[in-house]
Design goal:
The complex is a heterodimer of chains A (185) and B (105).
Chain A: H1 3-13, H2 19-38, H3 43-50, H4 53-65, H5 79-127, H6 137-180
Helix pairs in contact in A: 1-4, 5-6
Chain B: H1 3-17, E1 23-24, H2 25-32, H3 40-52, E2 56-63, E3 66-73, H4 75-99
Classes of the chains: A mainly alpha (185), B alpha+beta (105).
C-alpha cells in the first residue's frame, strides 16, 4: 500500500466527520509521516507502524467522539452581511450561476453525445458484417475498423466531458458553500 | 490498566513531554516510547483534548518546506501535572496500606 492509498482509505473511514476535521486529521498523519521519513524510515515501514487506516480512524473516533461526531454549530449571518450578500447575489452570483448552469448543461450534453457515439460505434462494428452485400473483404474490415474508431472517439469524448462536468459541478458547489454557508465554529 | 486511569496518565505524560520545551507529534511519541506505549491515533485525541481544555497551545511553523505543529504547555497544563503528582502521592499511601495487608501492625 502507498501513502496515497492509505490516505484515501483513512478519509473514507472518517466520512462521518466534517470535511475540516478530516483534513486536520490527515495533516496530523502527514506531518508524522514526513518526520518518520526524515528520520530514515521507509514508506512501507511507516505505514506498517500506523496500522490499517480503518483501524486508525476507528481508534480516533472512539477516543475523540466516543464513536459519534460532534454536532456542527454554524455562525449566523449579521444584518450587514445579509444585505451585502443580497446585492452580491443579484449583481454577480445569479448571472455567474446562470452561465455555470448553461456550461454544465453543454458539458453534460457533450458527455451524453460521446456516450451515444461510443455505443453507436460499437453497434456499427458489430452489425456491419451482416450488411456486406456487394462489398469486398477489405471493405468489410474497413467498415468494422471505422466503427471501432468511432466508438473510441465517443468513449474519449464521454470520459473527457464527464470529468469536465464533474469538476465544474464540484467547483460550483464549493463556491456556493464558500459564499453562503457559514464556517463551523 | 483501567481505561480512564490510562487516559489520565497519558494526558499527563504528554504534558510532561512538552513541559521543558515545545514539541511536535513525532517527537512526543518518540520521547514517551521508553516509558509508555502511545500510538499516533492515541496521541491525536489527547492533543485535541488538551488543546480544548486550554492545557496546551499550538503554533504552526515551517520545517523543511512543510508545516509542523508545535505544542506548548500552558499554566493550566502545569497545574494538571501538579494535580496528578498530588493524586499519585495519595495513591502511593493507599498502595502501601494495601500491600502491607490492610494494617500497620
Amino acid at each position: 500500500m502507498t501513502k496515497k492509498v492509505w490516505d484515501k482509505l483513512f478519509l473514507k473511514a472518517l466520512s462521518s466527520l466534517p470535511h475540516h476535521e478530516r483534513k486536520k486529521m490527515l495533516a496530523y498523519y502527514d506531518e508524522i509521516f514526513s518526520d518518520k521519513l526524515e528520520s530514515g524510515s521507509s514508506e512501507a515501514e511507516i505505514l506498517a507502524q500506523f496500522g490499517a487506516p480503518e483501524e486508525c480512524a476507528r481508534r480516533i473516533l472512539n477516543e475523540q467522539y466516543d464513536g459519534v461526531p460532534e454536532p456542527k454549530t454554524l455562525k449566523r449571518f449579521s444584518v450587514g452581511e445579509l444585505v451585502g450578500l443580497g446585492f452580491l447575489t443579484l449583481l454577480l452570483i445569479i448571472p455567474l450561476a446562470s452561465v455555470a448552469v448553461a456550461v454544465l448543461a453543454v458539458f453534460g450534453a457533450c458527455c451524453l453525445s460521446g456516450g451515444v457515439f461510443a455505443v453507436g460505434g460499437v453497434l456499427f462494428s458489430l452489425l456491419s458484417p451482416f450488411f456486406t452485400a456487394g462489398m469486398s473483404a477489405a471493405g468489410v474490415i474497413a467498415q468494422i475498423g471505422s466503427g471501432i474508431a468511432l466508438s473510441g472517439v465517443g468513449a474519449l469524448l464521454f470520459v473527457g466531458f464527464f470529468f469536465l462536468t464533474k469538476y465544474l459541478a464540484v467547483g460550483v458547489w464549493k463556491a456556493f458553500k464558500f459564499i453562503y454557508v457559514r464556517r463551523v465554529v | 490498566m483501567d481505561i480512564q486511569l490510562k487516559k489520565g496518565l497519558l494526558d499527563v505524560c504528554v504534558l510532561s513531554a512538552i513541559r521543558k520545551e515545545e514539541s511536535y507529534g513525532y517527537k512526543i511519541i518518540s520521547d514517551l516510547k521508553p516509558y509508555i506505549e502511545i500510538s499516533e491515533s492515541t496521541l491525536y485525541p489527547i492533543l485535541r483534548r488538551l488543546e480544548s481544555a486550554g492545557a496546551v497551545t499550538v503554533r504552526s511553523a515551517e520545517h523543511n518546506g512543510r508545516l509542523r505543529r508545535y505544542f506548548r504547555i500552558t499554566k493550566i497544563g502545569l497545574e494538571k501535572i501538579q494535580e496528578f503528582v498530588e493524586t499519585m502521592t495519595q495513591f502511593q499511601k493507599i498502595s502501601d496500606f494495601i500491600l502491607q495487608g490492610g494494617n500497620y501492625d
